[in-house]
Amino acid sequence: MDILLKNVRLNDGEDLQDVGIKNGEIIAIEKEITETADKVIEADGRVLVPGFVESHIHLDKALIASRKPNKSGTLQEAIKVTAELKPTFSKEDIYDRAKQALEMIIPHGVTTIRTHSEFDPAQGFTGFETILKLKEEYKDLVDIQVVAFPQEGIFKAPGTDKMMYEAMEMGADVVGGIPYNDAPANEHIDLVFEIAKKYNKPIDLHQDFSDEADKMSIEYLCHKTIKEGYQGKVSVGHLTALHALPKEQLDPIIQLMVEAEISVMALPATDLHLGARNDEYNVRRAVTPIRKLRDAGVNMCIATNNIRNAFTPYGNGDILQTAMLAIPVAHLGGADDLHTVLSMITENPAKAIGLINYGIQVGNQADVVLLDTKVKENAIIDIPERLYVIKNGRITVENHRETVVYR
Fold first, then answer.
1. Sign, CA torsion 136/141/145/150
2. CB–CB of 75/82 below 8 Å?
3. Which fold has domain 52-352?
4. CATH class of segment(s) 3-50+359-398
5. What pTM value is reported for the model?
6. DSSP-assigned letter for residue 305
7. What's the whole-number mean pLDDT along residues 157-174?
């Protein structure tokens, strides 16, 4: 074997297991493996989890918060500020910042990333081409899916429709969109589907990002998904407008989402920062209703969205911290809820973005993380060190940090 992990905890209440890895694949999971290996890791009961999946992030807009701050903290100013900055971005600038963001994310156990990379007639493909370059450069450390993302809208920015097709030809993995920042939203969605069907690609939309439940297009998106036979191939990020709906209006929409098999990427760090800025008292959380969606059977994911820019002026690339933030925000700390959070940054986003051979099973790709905690249910709340990150059967991160307490 190439790597043998001894005495790992896969699930609470079960016997410890040994996990054997060879040629990038998990080849054995047994109570005791006696075969030799090039590298033996004694886990001593620590938790082994599948590699974390960062399912919604913007690498090309990372680390620009200090250049032109969003002083009001609103979504509108975030979009305005970023649009003003984008013409100043060079390929070298985007490359350096996105690379720095990757170097922040990877040591925290992320083995797959879906990043939204934007373009428009004003800036061209400067950032998009750079992210495609980084995808290739970092392929041994992390798998990157690149979303063709029209941040400024498609119809609002004439010429973007042609660029969407060009982005797919250049190698985009996913067709992105932003119906709430375009007009009309339904025609925006129609064009996204037209492109996705032409290139046989999945869809990932910035959807209904608003404090209020007005001008929503999620219902149209659901009907369109079902009509086009795209169930299970559509994801949405944000979807904050749902939080403003009463139960009698919300429940039918959620059931429609279940029927359309739409996955949702909740983005609590961004949405808490930008949301409900006009509320003078009893300030709302303005985050999509994670528990209600989960309980109804929607595939719920948690993701970072941005690192230190006008939309999210903080963050260090640690998806566990984002998941930890979601626990109190979405009331996920109860005994029946806490154990469901880990899957929102592992199995659920893996399903949402179409990963195959994912998870700790014999025959699957060896993307795993050894956490410095011995209780799986505490994998989020401990925010444990990532002792080892293994990508495609190769150790990519090894953490020997030691803390000494003097008494």
1. negative
2. no
3. TIM Barrel (3.20.20)
4. mainly beta
5. 0.97
6. B
7. 97
